[in-house]
Specification:
Elements (H helix, E strand, L loop, with lengths): L2 H5 L1 E6 L3 H12 L4 E7 L2 H11 L3 E5 L7 H11 L4 E6 L4 H10 L3 E4 L4 H12 L7 H17 L1 H4 L14 H11 L4 H8 L3 H15 L4 H10 L7
Parallel strand pairs: 1-2, 1-3, 3-4, 4-5
Length: 231
């Protein structure tokens, strides 16, 4: 294997739709920065191959005939915590996308996305970003607002402290707010005047505090605990 192949982002593609699978596989193979390690229709087969394929990114369509996609996200994350999961949903599937984020996915894109956009989203995810399409972001924000409305006493508490006693620093909360808006680590670093490495350090600290393993799950958990204030 060449040095370029060794440096490429390893992608496992799983989708029950043959046409979508073929198009996404062609998109991945068209960019030298990505390496397609597996192209599968079966969720169970994907779980069997996680250990040997060692993907950096699991690109997952939700139309699987043999396994619930959200369960696949949850089990894949348990088996390979370092693997980032990007789910591909159809328009109108925002609730499933939301459940996928809660289960451990780090980002979501919609099926109409073009090949160049798909490649960009995979690379962004691998670089520490949290790609979330606008309709899903609106749903996330709606959940936050609904939680505030149903529990005003919690919303009135400090934005840096949750009812369960979990605390985030002002900077950690700021970083998560920017992650929730789809910003990459590099973009967050530019906005805050710090390095992407420093941003990653803040994120890792929030993982430990919130007991999660992905940026998407950290945002979800922080929103549930009213830790992000106004978004």
């Amino acid at each position: 294997m060449t040095d370029a192949a060794n440096a490429a982002v390893r992608v496992m593609l799983v989708d029950g739709d043959a046409a979508i699978r073929q198009r996404f596989a062609a998109a991945i193979c068209s960019d030298a920065r990505l390496l397609l390690t597996e192209c599968l229709a079966s969720g169970r087969e994907a779980l069997k191959r996680m250990a040997t394929a060692r993907p950096d990114v699991l690109l997952l369509g939700l139309q699987l005939s043999d396994l619930d996609a959200v369960d696949l996200v949850r089990n894949a994350k348990r088996m390979a915590a370092a693997c980032e999961i990007l789910v591909v949903v159809a328009p109108g599937d925002e609730q499933v996308a939301l459940a996928s984020l809660a289960a451990g996915a780090a980002g979501c894109v919609t099926k109409p996305c073009g090949n160049a956009e798909l490649v960009a989203q995979v690379l962004q995810l691998n670089a520490g970003g949290c790609p979330i399409f606008p309709a899903l972001l609106r749903l996330l924000l709606a959940h936050v607002r609904a939680a505030r409305h149903s529990a005003p006493e919690a919303a009135a508490a400090s934005a840096e402290r949750s009812p369960t006693g979990v605390r985030l620093t002002s900077r950690e909360a700021q970083v998560l707010r920017l992650i929730s808006r789809g910003c990459s680590y590099a973009e967050i670093g530019r906005r805050l005047g710090v390095s992407a490495h420093t941003v990653a350090s803040h994120i890792k600290k929030t993982y430990r505090k919130l007991e999660v393993h992905t940026a998407g799950a950290a945002v979800m958990r922080a929103m549930q605990l009213h830790l992000l204030g106004e978004t």
